[in-house]
Structure prediction request, 435 residues.
Amino acid sequence: MAYNTIALNNVYNYYMTTYAPRSSSRYDTHKKSELRNIYNTIVKINKESPLYKLDNSSESKSFAVGIKEDARELRNVIASLGGLDEEKILNKKASYSSNEDIATVTFTGEHPEQMEVSSYELEVRALASNQVNTGVFLPNTKVSLPPDTYSFDVHINDLNYEFQYSIKEGETNRSVQNRLAKLISNADIGLNADVLEDGNGNSALRLRSVSEGLKDGHSSIFLVSDDFTSKREGSVSYFGLDQMTRPAANAEFLLNGKQLTSQSNSFSIDNLFDVTLKGLSSSKGDTATIGLKTDVESLTENVSDLVKGYNSFIRHTAEYSDDFSGSRRLLGEMRGITARYHSQFDILGLNLQENGTIEIDKGELRHAAFSEYAKEDFSAIRNFANTLVRKMDQVSLNPMDYVNKTIIAYKNPGKNYATPYITSAFSGMLFNSYC
Prediction:
C-alpha cells in the first residue's frame, strides 16, 4: 500500500510539472455535491461511449491532457471574476494600488456591495528577506577531504533532514559542489542551492531559503551541521555550508499610520485585500493608497480579464490544429459560441478576429459601461461567460472526445451499461508517460 501511494504521488508530480505548471487556486476545490455530480456525469459519458481505438502517441497524450488543463484554467479565470453564479458572474470588485512600485493588491472580499470598504495608506520601511548561506570559495582542484561517505543535517521548519553523499578519489571541488546543489534543491525541503563563481576560477555553494521572515523566538530559518550526523563529518566546515551571509528579516510597514511587521512580503488586510510588497517607500510619507475601483472600472477590468483568458485558451488550442482534427473541431465550437453574441460584442467594443480571438477597443468598452443601456448591453458578456463555463466543464470532463480515434463498435442500443473505459484511457496516459 505504501509503495502504491508513493507511485501515485510520483505520477501526480510528473503530471503537474510536465503538463500543468500553472498554480492551483481555491476554485479547484469542490463540495461533495459537486464531486457527486461530476461522477454521475462521467458515468453517463462512459455508458454512452462507443468502443474506440485511440491514437496512443505521446503527442496525442499531451494534447488530451493539455486541453483539459487549458479548460480548467479558463474556468478558473471566469470563477475568479465574481464566482460561477449566473447572477454574480463578472461582478468582482477590482482593487487598485496608487503606487505599484511599493505594493500590488488583489481584492478577495465577498459581496462588497453589502458593505463599505475603506481605503488604506501603506508605507513600506523594510521588505521581508530570506536567509542566505554562502560557502567557502574553493579552486577547481581535487577535493582535500579524503574519499568516504559524508553526511550533514539541515534543520528547517522544525524538522531535521540528513543528507548523505560520497566523495570519490580524484573528484574536484566544483563537481562535488554541483552534486550537492542538485541534491539539496531536489529534496524540496524549502531550500534552493546553486554554485557561485568569483571570476578567478573559484566556486562556492550557496543555500537560500524559499520562505522569508523569522518566526517569533527564532534567529534563523535553517541550520546546517554535521556535529551529530551518522556518516563522516567535516564537509560542512570544508564547504562552509553553515556560514550565514544574510539573515532572514521580516517586512516592516505602516498601515494607516500603525507600525506592523510580517514574515512575508505577501499578506492579507482584514480578509479584504491580498497585498504583495514590491519595494520601499522612497521617503517618509511616501505611501501607496489601496482601495476599490469604481463599478465601471471593475466591470471593464473583469471583461478584459475574461477576454484575456479566452484568447489564451484559443491560442493554446490552435497550437494542436495541424495534427489533431479534434482541435480544429473545438476551435469551430468556440467560434460558434462567440458568433451568437457577435452583434452585442460590437456594441461593447469587442471585435472578433479571424483566428478566433477577441480584440478589445477599450474606448468603446468604457463608453458602453457609462451608457444608460449598460445593464442590458453587458448582459450579453455575462451570458457569454456562463456559456464558456458550461463548455469548459464539458471539455474538462471528456477531453478524449477531441483526440484522434477510430470507432470499433457501438454499444447495443437500449442495453448500455456504465464502464470506466474513457476515464481509464485518460488516466492511463499519466501512468504511461511517467513509466
